[in-house]
Amino acid sequence: MRAQLGTPFDAFDDGDKLKEECGVFGVIGVADAANFVALGLHALQHRGQEAGGIVSYDPVQGFNSARRFGYVRDNFTKADVMSTLPGELAIGHVRYSTAGSKGATAIRDVQPFFGEFSMGGAAIAHNGNLTNAAALRKELIERGSIFQSSSDSECIIHLMARSIQTNISERIKDALRRVEGAFSVVAMTRTKLIGVRDAHGVRPLVLGRVGDSGWALSSETCGLDIIGAEFVREIEPGEMVVIEGNKVLSTRPFTPAPSRFCIFEQVYFSRPDSILGGRSVYETRRQIGVELAKESPVDADLVCPVPDSGTPAAIGFSQESGIPYAMGIIRNQYMGRTFIEPTESIRNMGVRLKLNVNRALIKGKRVILVDDSVVRGTTSRKIKDMILEAGAAEVHFRIASPPTAWPCFYGVDTPERSKLLAATMTEDEMRDWIGVDSLKFISLDGLYRAAGVEAGRDPKAPKFCDACFSGEYPITPSDKIAEGFEMKAAE
Amino acid sequence: MRAQLGTPFDAFDDGDKLKEECGVFGVIGVADAANFVALGLHALQHRGQEAGGIVSYDPVQGFNSARRFGYVRDNFTKADVMSTLPGELAIGHVRYSTAGSKGATAIRDVQPFFGEFSMGGAAIAHNGNLTNAAALRKELIERGSIFQSSSDSECIIHLMARSIQTNISERIKDALRRVEGAFSVVAMTRTKLIGVRDAHGVRPLVLGRVGDSGWALSSETCGLDIIGAEFVREIEPGEMVVIEGNKVLSTRPFTPAPSRFCIFEQVYFSRPDSILGGRSVYETRRQIGVELAKESPVDADLVCPVPDSGTPAAIGFSQESGIPYAMGIIRNQYMGRTFIEPTESIRNMGVRLKLNVNRALIKGKRVILVDDSVVRGTTSRKIKDMILEAGAAEVHFRIASPPTAWPCFYGVDTPERSKLLAATMTEDEMRDWIGVDSLKFISLDGLYRAAGVEAGRDPKAPKFCDACFSGEYPITPSDKIAEGFEMKAAE
Amino acid sequence: MRAQLGTPFDAFDDGDKLKEECGVFGVIGVADAANFVALGLHALQHRGQEAGGIVSYDPVQGFNSARRFGYVRDNFTKADVMSTLPGELAIGHVRYSTAGSKGATAIRDVQPFFGEFSMGGAAIAHNGNLTNAAALRKELIERGSIFQSSSDSECIIHLMARSIQTNISERIKDALRRVEGAFSVVAMTRTKLIGVRDAHGVRPLVLGRVGDSGWALSSETCGLDIIGAEFVREIEPGEMVVIEGNKVLSTRPFTPAPSRFCIFEQVYFSRPDSILGGRSVYETRRQIGVELAKESPVDADLVCPVPDSGTPAAIGFSQESGIPYAMGIIRNQYMGRTFIEPTESIRNMGVRLKLNVNRALIKGKRVILVDDSVVRGTTSRKIKDMILEAGAAEVHFRIASPPTAWPCFYGVDTPERSKLLAATMTEDEMRDWIGVDSLKFISLDGLYRAAGVEAGRDPKAPKFCDACFSGEYPITPSDKIAEGFEMKAAE
Amino acid sequence: MRAQLGTPFDAFDDGDKLKEECGVFGVIGVADAANFVALGLHALQHRGQEAGGIVSYDPVQGFNSARRFGYVRDNFTKADVMSTLPGELAIGHVRYSTAGSKGATAIRDVQPFFGEFSMGGAAIAHNGNLTNAAALRKELIERGSIFQSSSDSECIIHLMARSIQTNISERIKDALRRVEGAFSVVAMTRTKLIGVRDAHGVRPLVLGRVGDSGWALSSETCGLDIIGAEFVREIEPGEMVVIEGNKVLSTRPFTPAPSRFCIFEQVYFSRPDSILGGRSVYETRRQIGVELAKESPVDADLVCPVPDSGTPAAIGFSQESGIPYAMGIIRNQYMGRTFIEPTESIRNMGVRLKLNVNRALIKGKRVILVDDSVVRGTTSRKIKDMILEAGAAEVHFRIASPPTAWPCFYGVDTPERSKLLAATMTEDEMRDWIGVDSLKFISLDGLYRAAGVEAGRDPKAPKFCDACFSGEYPITPSDKIAEGFEMKAAE
User: A284-332+339-454, what's its fold?
Assistant: First the structure.
């Protein structure tokens, strides 16, 4: 017997992954819009597995909503749920539970949020994070607003309720001008589908054409593919589109700001078949592997991905280095992503059951493992244990992102800074702590090149938000600073 | 808009896959044996996703059982289920529903089956198929046996009940000598764990050591890995092992017969990280890709697997041909295998939601698609549609198994012969029907070589059961012949 | 065969019963207060069977709530629910769904409602009906409040949120001074349990002592009995009690008004073992039967109640008349009250399965049936059919309330006026329409006498609210008048 | 505060009630027969609340079954269950769990049992108890039968399977001639509905006409009433009826024996609206109260039933004695019978929540409480506590059955003899132990008179089975004697 039940797999926590918090989707102009939204959310499930919600509008039956814990496929495929969501206009949301409360009452935190105003109802779904939500919430409560959830996103709907504008689109603008942070918002009134991205365009949002009559908004293009919609274009940073009938009206409600799209969407969050900036995410990730092989070559017998997120970079690394690509670690396909469940015990169980080493293949080999990122380092350590226990001669880690040394405040769940391995150790110290023969991260410049910025990162005007690597936050995290978070000292 | 909702994905049926019907697992000599069985069954879930069952024995609480529809992870991880299964001895079963009845009463068909005999109780779980079950069942009913299920495997327990032997192991021998067909059986009494393979050894079964005190039996070695058990050896064709305390007693109850292990286990059924005949299944599959590239090369830009089962052969094809490997089709990881659900409507839904083309990557490329097999050909046709619709310049199919022209009667779910594409068409006709630029299957000799038989297939004494390709059935399917099935004419 | 399946029972609708809408309960000063609330709500289940909710407060875990459709016994007895409701302070609510929306989203309408204010949270549960809620709601939405439910009671919590008072008790006063209508309210802050009755005291509310340290508020005394609490006194019309620690502080926040307790609580709503005005409700109802026998005697063989609500009056009728009491109609005890479920189809099913005639007893007899009320008359007609079909020689109806000719706007679900049998027919016409040998209602004076007002009803200053019989509404139903309801013309 | 939560109500166990174990129902010759069976079982729910099952037969879909824990109304009213039970022929069963196993596997014990024989399938449902089942089971297992349940009733189906008769009706006769005990059996083949009562006719079974084309068999006439069927006649002791098409064939397969119908059906088990021996059960029970008042008069203010089973006898007692009848104890109508749930903790909870004293009525009064029986005496003691705590001046118990001093072995769940209060105490000792002012049981002669045997009980040839009172067992309980049970010594 090689291992006690419970070790070494039982502590594969998710500290080595950052987690996207949300995906949003909306459809207008097609019958049974909620069914399309369900399909779109299913395609966006990797952005949030804990819960999902859909709101639809039908002229006869008004606004209806359904919110459920669990996967889209387990909830929004059932006739008894979908039949309650009639109409040609619907929006939806999938979420991972980080900000909101947990436990018995948390269904209240599942979006979309709905509000009834004197000129009619509106629903709103939000991907991102508001950096001044705590201050806004306090102010709203003092003025008589009653919050129904612990979600900061609810501020938007209360700000809308208190706007003096007489149409809902204008109220959304009013509300979003008051909030700070990163957001891609999909909203709906009785007749309009609305999409907005914050001025920096931190989170993605794309527009698609559904048949001749309809339109869709989706966090990623893979959400358009699943319903057979045509990808039209990305919503631009700072842009608001209001779709009604066959018209898409574009406005720019915010003060212009430099574009700072989240570079971690390229590394890990987005699906490999999505298109970002005109390129396949898969191709960008493969290119990261190519850059990594150039920057940090090593002599070995096999290049193996840590499945599944390390796969494209491992393919690129193999192609650049000439070292054969192999499936050295097999993922049990009956699990979802490791970080699905929010409670500690299930998460542990999840990881213990997730991966197996291809023992007969690995034995006696020098193995390069390619993973997307290192967060706490605990998973890396356990994977190394698995590989060595199976008889590998050498283990080399190559990481498809720079060291993650700073928390994200823009809609990604990260541990506090002191728990990030790279915040407290050098690369060599990390290598020794994980216990591998070598450990190399791609450089920030290499990552920019792989993402299509041939010149690498311009420190004066970086093209992406890379705060988790650089500590340079494009939007001041004011709530967090009020709580005591210390920004990187200016150099 | 490129496609109507519902097309082209909505008819991706499972006709292009053969389905393994079962996995079996047993553990003796460790506390909470049922928990180990649950983990083992989880690792064997690919062998049967419809339902699972566990029986355990505890000296105080006697035999207990739990049988559930759905995944192991959804049922046998819950405290309220597992707490009802105490003891240091347990066996389990996962199944795909083909032979038994479907619908409301089918839980009766979920194994293990349990019988109470005058000398005590016994439970039995069976992977394979009995080719004389219909005749046996008729005879048993006439003699007063009452069948509780529609499963043919229940014959075994009734034959045991009528045996005049005074201990259960002998009764199992008596019963299994009466049945014909392919079987790997795991059984238990109050004190013994028992494993048996039919004389030809068609279905796999392996023995593992659990810590210092326990033993495990599993359909595949991946079931041992998940619980940290050490792989000891395969149970041999025609062997029966009776494990009690620390002793493993081996006997040979059946007339010796040539070994004819199912070659489709190598091609598709077994997990790539399992070990068969001393080799990684992954490696055998990669080698199939190598042989295929040698036999049927073609000029192209990308080699793409049809995920996930085509992946190892695609890697081998790329390595042999030098054409870059790429993930041209992305599988939604929140689905299981396509053939999970037994009802038509859900199966259709399953496939529509399962795959997406990496459009930005495929556009304008000449693509080689590597898949494991073609059964009805319907899925291949739809995948081709998807790839062309995404703008591929050429589509070439390479299949990691020979044409599937004959049904399996040994525990695999296959359509009737007339529905098998290769039973009615030549390779060229299939290519035209599917509508691709080229279509090539690996030769039977090539497959044998990849599986380690360097000399290729010896028509006088083939090392494997390859009836689905060759029409040569090592065990006469007597029930089927009685129903009118026509064997291949002798040449 | 005497009847087709489906007739004559299948249309036993509930038009012949008025339905109480709510019961409220609260406890302070005992460990696991929510368990006591669950017991109290179970005892008050007759006041609302559709749904229930409990909010509790614990210094460590804050406010928690659980809201469920269905019976208290099916939801608030489970460990997984009750363990989420810790603390020594809790309030709860049971409801019948009349005002709020129905269907998928209606769980939002289940009370208690909770609001977080700048000085802390508060929860509130309401029995009764606000007659100016529509106007208030419109005004609040215009000022930026977001309603989460379709329940008019939610107005109270929004009025509280907008109050400028700095403690919650004062905010409750502010809010309740703005509302019109009938209400008994139970509310809680982090430290206080609060009870209020409207100025007329239309709905009941009583105070109880729980052990040495705790207090309870309950709609009826039967809620105190179940937890072994001592009945202290009724909360008085217009009184507000604020309970903190061992102190009960009483104030009178509203303009004084004459007491007008709902007389239908005496006739039907309250449980027979509750105490109202110092007397057992059972005794009052028995006395109604005595008065009825004096007012409208008839020669017959048996006096039978329409179970179960007609039972006490039938006993009284039998005792006064000397005609033997008998159980001529048997209620299936596995059903609840007929009007449990809010959807038409289930309600119909409910009634078809509910009652059976004691055929062998009834055959050839002259039967007096005593029922509590006649609303639409449809049930009476079907009961008459049942009795005659069983062979009764004569059927005489005696009704323990006067003709119900006006809708209630104070927390009781009544059909619109045109559907009330007594609004459109004389007593003789009703007798003929129902098809019985005689039909007599108790007089309003007789009812007052039975309820302890020896002098009968004083038209100038009636002691009770009897609007449903008299059309004299003590509180102007302003929302309804705005919708077009016509009050009785002044005489 | 009068009582701690948990006392005195929390130990109201069910030791004071005997429990009927089963009800059976069958229908032939009407569309959707299973719906009629569901209604019939609902009317028979008082005979068994733990679980229910229905088997139906349809020429196209064959035999189908559904078995569920819980009430009929909660399971067999749902479309997804009922749609799986097509056909014009169906039988069903409700049960209380006493003999069979409990816990996770017990659904196997829920009847009807089904067997497939060489000449076709058959299903069988059994009310009663076989007194030689243990011996039969042992013999059958030795001969190779495999039992699927722990229910003794399964012997019948195995005996049928081993019969050499060539039609199923004859096989049923064969099987029932081998069993000893009390039984009313309803069975079905593909074309026939079959009913049988044991030679003594211990358990009830009646025949009804359903419309022009159909027939029904039911444990009681109330099952016929609910579906509008006409009561034709009782099946006679020792009679077997085979119903096919429009014909009812009657035979007498057993050695004739004196009729010994269970007298406790009259006292407690049967529903008051059922007809037994041509009389309403209600009327017999009322007459018991009359006899009791003659035998054991006492001066008092009120006669109160212990609800609900004591009600008819209390009415009779009041009518004979002239002491006013009153509802002194109110049952919470949202509970079922106390003995619903088989686990101790829920049972306790059940009783605590069940009854409340009508305090304002009882205070200062001398109260006669009429109950149906005393088993362990524990409930009586707690009811006395409740009544005294509410201020009653005197408490007198009058019991509508003789002292229960012997266990029943014919299908009723009774405690072992040592736990029966009357087996260890005289009437005076019981009075003191319970702690009431007087306690009187009806005499056995009085009970016979009330049941229509004017001459009282003939000790040489009693008309009823009264073993629980007299210790005279008409059928030898051979399994129990083998286990050590001592019969009453011959006098």
Answer: Rossmann fold (3.40.50)
